[in-house]
Amino acid sequence: MRTQVAIIGAGPSGLLLGALLHKAGIDNIIIERQSGDYVLGRIRAGILEQITVDLLKEAGADARLKLEGTVHHSIDIGFKNQRHSIDVHGLTGGKVVTAYGQTELTRDLMEAREAAGLTTIYEAGEVSIHDFDGKQPLVRYVKDGQHHELACDFIAGCDGFHGVCRASVPKDAITEFERVYPFGWLGILAEVPPVSPHAIVYANSERGFALCSMRSLTRSRYYVQCPLDDKIEKWTDDVFWDEIRRRLDPDLASRIITGPSIEKSIAPLRSFVAEPMRFGSLFLAGDAAHIVPPTGAKGLNLAASDVKYLSSAFIEHYKEKTDAGLDSYSERCLRRIWRAERFSWWLTSLLHRFPDTGGFGQKIQEAELDYLVTSQAASTALAENYVGLPL
User: Residue 260 catalytic?
Assistant: First the structure.
């Protein structure tokens, strides 16, 4: 087989890239090592920047988003048993974020790809990439016991942090930066209405961080900070609901509607960036190149901005016969990535209980939070980063 762009990974970044390239008349094939059901089973992010919403519209996959997405005009920050609202919409000249689950976004892109008759190869085993430092890159994989080769012009590595693409780059050609945080997030998903249907609630408490978010008006996602070595078995639903109430202000805690969890997991937090993001005809995008702690809701949105840069660069190459976009891809992405990494690190540092800072650290956090919610300049800086910095 042959295609113009071989996309490794059928997560949101790979599917979105494939959709945008198809709209521009550029042939592409997606290769995914897992099944489609497995990909849809990943419970991930749910807050979309306007840039991501616009890209879904450009890809022709925003019909359900327009009907079911919930626009958020503000975020709430709680500390010292009080809650403060940050008017994101007003402070940014009308910008907002939209709550819409990554699972639903992925489903929309999958269905649009299937309706367009485009090729996605699921459950591809032994995926490997070759000769991406030359002009004839190749992808090899096994499907149903048969060995296959896919020749292409370019390879887009959208296969996540543990994928084959970044791992195939020679060690001396790539630099990795990483910080692993000394705690995790215990998250549950429940079929209950959100405690705050029009705002995300972040809480800093002496017991640790808590987050109240939503996937829809009938489905909620809640998180609490927990030790990295915690066991999910000890967190019964009742224990979780009791704990998150203790970390919220009394009014909000009294309004939480509880219910049985339909998913429960503990996720570690890390900051990670790989530089550069281009190696000959191989281009990394999304989690293959960078990870942010989920505090700032930037992971999915950073992947979308990578895809915007990369799709535009491929379109320029094929339609305008210029490689300027390909040559500048890594630099352009990394400038935005490091800004998002800084914001996510800052917000994580501000809201979580760190084991080595003690009472002094808690007081410093509370003082900074007090400044944040009373200073228009500080609130504006938070709002601008939260809705997404411009491309």
Answer: no
